[in-house]
Design goal:
single chain, two-stranded antiparallel ribbon, 6 helices, membrane, Methylamine utilization protein MauE, transmembrane helix, Methylamine_util_MauE, transmembrane
Length: about 180
């Protein structure tokens, strides 16, 4: 099967943008992010700080890995595993009735309450990673028009992601220690 490099690069850039931005915002707010990790109540206390520090570093490495064709397949697999883990952690807390905690996706002034919409969003992002995971066949060469298509499509996906995040997950700012 001949793979379309425009589709693959659109997925790479979109996922790298999301994971890179998430990592940078978490690294800039490590203490509040540690509170978010703690609020999920899924880890022993001794694991909270290492996870809070390690997770954004891993996200940054995966974002960079997506941009290198030789590592993009493995990075996409890592992204999919993380997204599934995030979705599972959210689902566990939603089932527990704990929806008023911050998802921790981006450490910004907008808090994202847990919701099934966020779980679905993560699952949709896993679908975006699938073409990269399954890639391996010959690809046609990139044409000049592909560059415009990739930029437009990746930009549109990132804007749609940002809009969906604001629409389905925002709430007033509260301290990360509550919930």
């Amino acid at each position: 099967m001949l793979e379309d490099p425009a589709l693959l690069w659109t997925a790479r850039l979109s996922l790298a943008g999301i994971f890179g931005a998430a990592a940078v915002t978490k690294l800039a707010a490590l203490e509040p992010f540690a509170g978010v990790v703690r609020n999920y109540r899924l880890l022993p206390e001794a694991a909270v700080r290492p996870v809070a520090l390690g997770l954004p570093v891993l996200e940054l490495l995966l974002a960079a890995g997506l941009l290198v064709p030789a590592t993009s397949r493995a990075a996409a697999g890592g992204v999919a595993v993380l997204l599934l883990a995030f979705a599972a952690a959210m689902a566990v807390n939603i089932r527990r009735g704990r929806v008023n905690i911050d998802c921790g996706c981006f450490m910004t002034v907008l808090r994202q309450r847990l919701s099934w919409g966020l779980v679905v969003r993560n699952l949709l992002l896993v679908l975006l990673a699938l073409p990269l995971i399954l890639a391996g066949g010959p690809a046609r060469g990139l044409l000049w028009i592909d560059m415009m298509t990739i930029a437009g499509a990746a930009g549109s996906l990132l804007l749609a992601y940002a809009a969906a995040t604001r629409l389905y997950g925002t709430a007033p700012v509260e301290s990360a220690g509550r919930g």
